[in-house]
Structure formats: structure tokens, C-alpha cells
Amino acid sequence: MPANRIAPLMAGEALGERHWLLTFHHPETAREARAGQFVMIKAGTSAEPPLRRPFSIMAVDPERETFTLLVKEVGPGSRALCGLPPGGVAQCLGPLGRPFTPPPTGVDALLVAGGYGIAPFWLFAQEISRIGGRARLFYGGRTAADLPLLARFAESAGAVVGATEDGSSGHRGMVTAPLVEWLRGTKTPARLYACGPDAMLRAVAHLAEEWGLAAEVSLDPWMGCGVGTCLGCVVRTQAAGDPRARYRCACTEGPVFDAAQVVWPGEEASSMRRTAAERGVARAEG
Ligand SMILES: Cc1cc2nc3c(=O)[nH]c(=O)nc-3n(C[C@H](O)[C@H](O)[C@H](O)COP(=O)(O)OP(=O)(O)OC[C@H]3O[C@@H](n4cnc5c(N)ncnc54)[C@H](O)[C@@H]3O)c2cc1C
Ligand code: FES
Question: How far is the CA of 138 from the centre of ligand 1 (A)?
Fold first, then answer.
């Protein structure tokens, strides 16, 4: 059950100029969070800024009752969190939302992260390893500064392929290029998981369709409340066999969705939306 608490900052670490790892004390999130879930959080106890902001839960430590976020400073809410002193407090509600579904036995998890979209995959890689599965991370950004966890992920969780648009780290170009290279070279059944900018999520969803793979994407819409009341986070989805697209709250029914059900902005809902079996997913997963 999500808990609404004052959460003290236990540790903060700067990663380069704009990213921070922030560890807060919050027993319920530490005990219950699953990869893909998030917290709604804001620094301090004052009314400014008025709304909490959503951040993916990156790591948990149930014994110490703490969880860790990877925060990129982009505006007032994230800047106030990154500026908290040790022992400073935040208002925190979590864990919230629908997590990623671990892959079935024998199916590899191909994790595709853009920028801070790596956060939920830290926890997910641990969950997959605990059930004896295998994960491989494709981690992209504009420049090396957008990949602050590249080396640490490689040390702690294993296989990582980096890609940057300017070539300053890993492959030069989009992160989907090494992913396609990998898909061409492997016969192991795989499932795709993606978290990052919309354009990347959409590209991964289309690759999944092309390769007949199941895929989940973690969407990143604006969120006001995190609990299904403000309707600020609605996204269009369409289930297989449903003739109409429907609006769903990303905070309560997501942020993780079946990629085949997302109707991307500018795309029309289709009366021909196919089931997973029709898309060849059963074959791809053996
Ligand atoms: C489910 C979920 C999980 C998230 N996980 C993380 C995470 O692990 N780490 C992290 O750093 N951020 C994460 N975010 C994004 C984070 O919530 C926003 O960056 C934050 O709300 C910005 O608040 P702000 O007050 O600092 O900036 P604002 O003043 O709200 O925004 C500053 C600038 O950032 C842009 N911006 C704001 N929100 C987003 C967004 N969601 N996507 C793209 N651009 C945005 C605005 O358009 C504006 O240009 C997540 C968002 C969602 C929905
Ligand atoms: S953020 Fe308010 S309904 Fe989802």
C-alpha cells in the first residue's frame, strides 16, 4: 500500500553536473516497491512548488528502510530535491503505479533506456537476476553526460551497450541501432522493455512489432497527483480486439504499458489492432 510520509534524506551524491543519486528513508517504499513503480515527492514542507513530482524508484534497501532516486535537475521541483542537505526532508507518497512484468523463464530481457530512463532498470536488473533470468541494457543519450550510470551498471548488473548521438561514449547514433544489431545476431527469445523519451519508446514499440516481440514501455507524461484524480496524465491506449481507443491514467494503470496497446500521438487507433499471438509474440518467446 502506498504511504504518505515525511521522508528524510539519508544520502546524496552528485553524478556529474546535472544528475544526483538521492536516498530517502521511507519504509513502505523500501519494502514493497517493484521496478517501474514511482514516488510523488517534493522537497521541504512548504507549499512551493505546489505539486509533487514523479520519480522512478531506482533502488531499495529494505533493511535500512531506504530507497534511492536518480534525479536530473531540469526545473524548480528537481532542483529543490537535489539541493536538500543531509537530514533535510521531503514529502513523499509511494510506491505508486504498475511495475514491469518480469520475462518468462528462458526469455532474455532487453532493457532500452534513454537518459534518466535507466532508473527503473537498476531495480529491474536485480529482480531479473533473483529469478535466474538474463538482462542486457542498451543505454542511450545525446552525450556521455546523459549516461551517468554507464560504468556502475556494467560493474554491478552486467551486459551494457552505450550509445550517444555525438559519439562521446559508446556507439555513435541512436540506441536502437545496437539493439537491432543484437536482434539480428541472436536466436535467444527476448522481450523488450523501454524507459526514456517518447521518440525512443515509440521506436522500440515499432521494433517490437517488426520483430514479433512482446514489449513494455514506461511512459513519462506530466503528472499532477499520482493517484488518479487530476486526469493530467491520461494516455491513449487500445487493447487487441477493442474497436476503440480509450484514455487511461498513466499514474494508476501505468506508467508501464504493453507497447502494442499505446496509441502514439499523431497515430490513429486501428480497428485491426492484433493480439500478441497474431503479432508472433508466442513464436518469438518459444
Ligand atoms: C513515471 C515517471 C517517472 C519519472 N522518473 C524520473 C527519474 O527517475 N528521474 C528524473 O530525473 N526524472 C524522472 N521523471 C521526470 C520528472 O518527473 C520531471 O523531470 C520533473 O517533474 C520535473 O520537475 P521540475 O519542477 O524540476 O521541472 P518543471 O518545471 O516541471 O520542468 C522543467 C522542464 O522539464 C520539462 N519536463 C518536465 N517534466 C518532464 C517529463 N516528465 N518529461 C520530459 N520533460 C519534462 C518541462 O517541459 C520543462 O521544460 C519521471 C516522470 C514520470 C512521469
Ligand atoms: S497524475 Fe493525476 S490522474 Fe494521474
Answer: 21
Q: pLDDT over 70 for what percent of the chain?
A: 93
Q: At what angle do helices 176-185 and 198-211 cross, to 10 degrees?
A: 20
Check whether 150 has a pLDDT greater than 90.
yes
Q: Kindly report the CATH number that applies to the domain delimited by 108-284.
A: 3.40.50.80
User: Regarding the domain delimited by 3-96, which CATH topology (the fold level of the hierarchy) does it fall under?
Assistant: Elongation Factor Tu (Ef-tu); domain 3 (2.40.30)
Output the DSSP codes for 141-153. Answer: ESSGGG-TTHHHH
Q: Is the CB of 226 under 6 A from ligand 2?
A: yes
How much of the chain, in percent, has pLDDT values that exceed 90? Answer: 84
- Residue 45 has a pLDDT of 84
Report the largest interatomic distance among the alpha carbons of the chain, rounded to a whole angstrom: 55
Q: Are 197 and 213 in contact (CB under 8 A)?
A: no
What is the distance in A from the centroid of ligand 1 to the CA of 19? 13
pLDDT tens digits for range 178-221: 999 999 998 889 999 999 999 999 999 999 999 999 999 999 99
* Ligand 1 pocket, residue 71 CB under 6 Å: yes
From the CB of 204, is ligand 2 less than 6 Å away?
no
CA distances for 239 relative to 102, 258, 262, angstroms: 20, 9, 8
How far, in Å, are 114, 206, 263 from residue 217 at the CA level? 12, 12, 12
